[in-house]
Design brief:
Strand content: 15-25%
Strand order of the largest sheet: 1-10-7-6-5-4-3-2
Largest sheet: 8 strands, parallel
Helix content: 40-55%
Shape: globular
Protein backbone atom coordinates (compact mmCIF):
# COMPACT_ATOMS: atom_id res chain seq x y z
CA UNK A 1 0.00 0.00 0.00
CA UNK A 2 1.49 3.33 -1.10
CA UNK A 3 0.70 6.47 0.85
CA UNK A 4 0.30 9.37 -1.55
CA UNK A 5 1.43 12.86 -0.66
CA UNK A 6 0.51 16.30 -2.01
CA UNK A 7 2.86 19.16 -2.89
CA UNK A 8 1.29 22.19 -1.22
CA UNK A 9 2.63 24.54 -3.91
CA UNK A 10 -0.31 23.21 -5.95
CA UNK A 11 -2.70 24.86 -3.47
CA UNK A 12 -0.95 28.22 -3.05
CA UNK A 13 -3.80 30.05 -4.85
CA UNK A 14 -6.51 28.49 -2.64
CA UNK A 15 -6.02 29.85 0.89
CA UNK A 16 -6.37 29.35 3.77
CA UNK A 17 -4.18 26.29 4.12
CA UNK A 18 -6.19 25.06 7.08
CA UNK A 19 -9.05 24.49 4.62
CA UNK A 20 -6.66 22.84 2.18
CA UNK A 21 -5.48 20.43 4.89
CA UNK A 22 -9.07 19.51 5.77
CA UNK A 23 -9.84 18.86 2.09
CA UNK A 24 -6.77 16.68 1.57
CA UNK A 25 -7.48 14.66 4.69
CA UNK A 26 -11.07 14.10 3.56
CA UNK A 27 -9.88 12.93 0.14
CA UNK A 28 -7.58 10.33 1.65
CA UNK A 29 -4.16 11.93 1.62
CA UNK A 30 -1.92 10.91 4.50
CA UNK A 31 0.87 13.43 3.99
CA UNK A 32 1.92 16.64 2.28
CA UNK A 33 5.12 18.20 1.00
CA UNK A 34 6.04 21.72 2.04
CA UNK A 35 7.56 24.65 0.14
CA UNK A 36 9.32 27.83 1.17
CA UNK A 37 6.43 30.29 1.51
CA UNK A 38 4.81 28.10 4.16
CA UNK A 39 7.68 28.24 6.62
CA UNK A 40 7.10 31.61 8.27
CA UNK A 41 5.59 29.93 11.36
CA UNK A 42 6.85 26.33 11.47
CA UNK A 43 5.32 25.52 14.86
CA UNK A 44 1.93 26.86 13.78
CA UNK A 45 2.13 24.92 10.52
CA UNK A 46 2.92 21.74 12.43
CA UNK A 47 -0.08 22.29 14.73
CA UNK A 48 -2.38 22.74 11.73
CA UNK A 49 -1.04 19.58 10.09
CA UNK A 50 -1.45 17.59 13.29
CA UNK A 51 -5.02 18.84 13.67
CA UNK A 52 -5.83 17.58 10.16
CA UNK A 53 -4.15 14.24 10.74
CA UNK A 54 -1.46 14.93 8.13
CA UNK A 55 2.31 14.49 8.23
CA UNK A 56 5.02 16.28 6.24
CA UNK A 57 7.72 13.68 5.58
CA UNK A 58 9.31 15.71 2.78
CA UNK A 59 9.81 19.41 2.22
CA UNK A 60 11.40 21.72 -0.32
CA UNK A 61 13.89 24.12 1.26
CA UNK A 62 15.70 26.64 -0.94
CA UNK A 63 19.46 26.73 -1.32
CA UNK A 64 19.92 30.00 0.55
CA UNK A 65 17.91 28.60 3.48
CA UNK A 66 19.88 25.35 3.40
CA UNK A 67 23.12 27.28 3.72
CA UNK A 68 21.89 28.52 7.12
CA UNK A 69 22.31 25.01 8.50
CA UNK A 70 21.19 25.43 12.13
CA UNK A 71 18.02 27.29 11.14
CA UNK A 72 17.12 24.82 8.38
CA UNK A 73 17.77 21.90 10.73
CA UNK A 74 15.44 23.39 13.33
CA UNK A 75 12.80 23.99 10.66
CA UNK A 76 13.01 20.41 9.42
CA UNK A 77 12.79 18.97 12.94
CA UNK A 78 9.84 21.16 13.86
CA UNK A 79 7.91 20.00 10.80
CA UNK A 80 8.85 16.36 11.23
CA UNK A 81 10.62 16.08 7.88
CA UNK A 82 12.34 12.85 6.98
CA UNK A 83 13.91 14.05 3.73
CA UNK A 84 14.84 17.53 2.52
CA UNK A 85 14.88 18.46 -1.16
CA UNK A 86 16.60 21.47 -2.69
CA UNK A 87 14.05 22.51 -5.30
CA UNK A 88 15.39 25.15 -7.65
CA UNK A 89 17.98 27.71 -8.65
CA UNK A 90 17.33 31.07 -10.26
CA UNK A 91 16.78 31.25 -14.01
CA UNK A 92 19.99 33.21 -14.44
CA UNK A 93 21.92 30.04 -13.47
CA UNK A 94 20.11 27.51 -15.66
CA UNK A 95 22.60 27.70 -18.54
CA UNK A 96 25.72 28.27 -16.45
CA UNK A 97 28.91 26.45 -17.42
CA UNK A 98 29.79 22.83 -16.72
CA UNK A 99 32.28 24.12 -14.17
CA UNK A 100 29.64 26.14 -12.31
CA UNK A 101 27.25 23.18 -12.28
CA UNK A 102 30.07 21.04 -10.93
CA UNK A 103 30.68 23.59 -8.17
CA UNK A 104 26.98 23.47 -7.28
CA UNK A 105 27.01 19.68 -7.29
CA UNK A 106 29.91 19.60 -4.84
CA UNK A 107 28.23 22.13 -2.57
CA UNK A 108 25.05 20.03 -2.60
CA UNK A 109 27.12 16.96 -1.81
CA UNK A 110 28.56 18.69 1.26
CA UNK A 111 25.08 19.81 2.32
CA UNK A 112 23.89 16.23 1.89
CA UNK A 113 26.59 14.98 4.24
CA UNK A 114 25.69 17.60 6.83
CA UNK A 115 21.94 16.98 6.79
CA UNK A 116 22.44 13.20 6.78
CA UNK A 117 24.53 13.61 9.93
CA UNK A 118 21.52 15.46 11.40
CA UNK A 119 19.28 12.49 10.60
CA UNK A 120 17.66 13.61 7.33
CA UNK A 121 17.70 12.35 3.77
CA UNK A 122 18.77 14.99 1.27
CA UNK A 123 18.26 15.35 -2.47
CA UNK A 124 17.56 17.50 -5.50
CA UNK A 125 14.19 18.17 -7.12
CA UNK A 126 14.36 18.73 -10.87
CA UNK A 127 12.56 20.97 -13.34
CA UNK A 128 13.11 21.04 -17.12
CA UNK A 129 16.33 23.01 -17.40
CA UNK A 130 18.47 20.25 -15.87
CA UNK A 131 17.92 18.24 -19.07
CA UNK A 132 19.12 20.89 -21.52
CA UNK A 133 22.60 19.92 -22.77
CA UNK A 134 25.41 22.31 -21.86
CA UNK A 135 28.29 23.36 -24.12
CA UNK A 136 30.33 20.37 -22.95
CA UNK A 137 27.58 17.96 -23.95
CA UNK A 138 26.53 16.85 -20.49
CA UNK A 139 23.25 17.86 -18.89
CA UNK A 140 23.08 19.60 -15.51
CA UNK A 141 21.19 16.59 -14.10
CA UNK A 142 23.99 14.24 -15.09
CA UNK A 143 26.55 16.56 -13.51
CA UNK A 144 24.58 16.79 -10.25
CA UNK A 145 24.17 13.04 -9.92
CA UNK A 146 27.70 12.06 -10.95
CA UNK A 147 29.64 14.83 -9.20
CA UNK A 148 27.63 14.55 -5.97
CA UNK A 149 27.25 10.81 -5.26
CA UNK A 150 25.82 11.70 -1.84
CA UNK A 151 22.81 13.39 -3.45
CA UNK A 152 19.44 11.67 -3.74
CA UNK A 153 16.84 12.66 -6.34
CA UNK A 154 13.18 13.61 -6.24
CA UNK A 155 12.24 12.94 -9.86
CA UNK A 156 9.59 15.23 -11.32
CA UNK A 157 8.72 13.04 -14.28
CA UNK A 158 6.58 15.55 -16.17
CA UNK A 159 9.35 18.15 -16.00
CA UNK A 160 11.75 15.57 -17.49
CA UNK A 161 9.29 15.23 -20.39
CA UNK A 162 9.04 19.01 -20.74
CA UNK A 163 12.83 19.07 -20.79
CA UNK A 164 12.50 16.92 -23.94
CA UNK A 165 14.12 13.89 -22.36
CA UNK A 166 13.00 10.31 -21.70
CA UNK A 167 12.12 9.48 -18.06
CA UNK A 168 12.58 5.75 -18.69
CA UNK A 169 16.22 6.31 -19.60
CA UNK A 170 16.87 8.17 -16.39
CA UNK A 171 15.03 5.60 -14.27
CA UNK A 172 17.13 2.87 -15.86
CA UNK A 173 20.41 4.68 -15.24
CA UNK A 174 19.80 6.40 -11.89
CA UNK A 175 16.94 4.46 -10.30
CA UNK A 176 19.04 3.80 -7.21
CA UNK A 177 19.20 7.57 -6.59
CA UNK A 178 15.44 8.22 -6.94
CA UNK A 179 13.86 8.32 -3.47
CA UNK A 180 10.78 10.41 -4.26
CA UNK A 181 8.64 11.05 -7.35
CA UNK A 182 6.30 13.87 -8.33
CA UNK A 183 3.15 12.51 -9.94
CA UNK A 184 1.95 15.16 -12.38
CA UNK A 185 0.67 15.19 -15.93
CA UNK A 186 0.85 17.23 -19.11
CA UNK A 187 -2.27 18.25 -21.01
CA UNK A 188 -2.58 17.36 -24.71
CA UNK A 189 -1.09 19.92 -27.09
CA UNK A 190 -3.20 23.08 -27.19
CA UNK A 191 -5.33 22.22 -24.15
CA UNK A 192 -5.46 23.65 -20.60
CA UNK A 193 -3.79 26.93 -21.52
CA UNK A 194 -5.36 28.48 -18.41
CA UNK A 195 -3.55 25.82 -16.34
CA UNK A 196 -0.16 26.35 -18.01
CA UNK A 197 -0.60 23.16 -20.01
CA UNK A 198 -0.61 20.85 -16.99
CA UNK A 199 -3.25 18.19 -16.32
CA UNK A 200 -4.63 16.17 -13.43
CA UNK A 201 -2.80 12.88 -12.99
CA UNK A 202 -4.11 10.34 -15.51
CA UNK A 203 -5.85 13.00 -17.60
CA UNK A 204 -2.85 13.97 -19.71
CA UNK A 205 -0.33 12.45 -22.08
CA UNK A 206 2.36 11.10 -19.72
CA UNK A 207 2.28 7.24 -19.85
CA UNK A 208 1.95 6.89 -16.11
CA UNK A 209 0.95 3.23 -15.81
CA UNK A 210 4.13 2.12 -17.54
CA UNK A 211 6.34 4.66 -15.78
CA UNK A 212 4.91 3.93 -12.34
CA UNK A 213 5.63 0.21 -12.82
CA UNK A 214 9.22 1.09 -13.79
CA UNK A 215 9.63 3.33 -10.75
CA UNK A 216 8.30 0.68 -8.39
CA UNK A 217 10.60 -1.96 -9.88
CA UNK A 218 13.79 0.01 -10.56
CA UNK A 219 13.95 2.92 -8.13
CA UNK A 220 14.15 3.42 -4.37
CA UNK A 221 11.15 5.77 -4.40
CA UNK A 222 9.42 5.91 -1.04
CA UNK A 223 7.39 9.09 -1.50
CA UNK A 224 4.89 9.69 -4.32
CA UNK A 225 3.75 13.31 -4.41
CA UNK A 226 0.85 14.79 -6.41
CA UNK A 227 1.54 18.12 -8.05
CA UNK A 228 -0.08 20.48 -10.54
CA UNK A 229 1.69 23.81 -10.97
CA UNK A 230 -1.47 25.83 -11.67
CA UNK A 231 -4.82 24.05 -11.20
CA UNK A 232 -7.95 26.13 -11.61
CA UNK A 233 -9.98 23.74 -9.43
CA UNK A 234 -8.11 22.41 -6.40
CA UNK A 235 -10.63 19.79 -5.31
CA UNK A 236 -10.98 18.43 -8.85
CA UNK A 237 -7.21 18.08 -9.19
CA UNK A 238 -6.66 16.55 -5.76
CA UNK A 239 -9.57 14.09 -6.04
CA UNK A 240 -8.92 12.93 -9.61
CA UNK A 241 -5.19 12.58 -9.02
CA UNK A 242 -5.38 10.41 -5.93
CA UNK A 243 -8.00 8.24 -7.64
CA UNK A 244 -5.62 7.72 -10.58
CA UNK A 245 -2.65 7.06 -8.33
CA UNK A 246 -4.49 4.39 -6.37
CA UNK A 247 -5.31 2.62 -9.63
CA UNK A 248 -1.73 2.62 -10.94
Amino acid sequence: MTDFSFQLYSARNFPPFTDVFALLSRLGYASVEGFGALYTDPAGLRRDLDAAGLTMPTGHIGLDQLRDKPKATELARTLGLETIFCPFIGQEYWKQSDEKWTELARELGELAKYYRDQGFGFGWHNHHFEFWPLEGGRTPMEILLTEAPELDWEMDVAWVVRGEDDPKRWIEKFGDRIVSVHLKDIAPEGEAADEDGWADLGHGVVPWKDLFADLKAKSKAKYFVMEHDNPNDLERFAARSIATAKAL
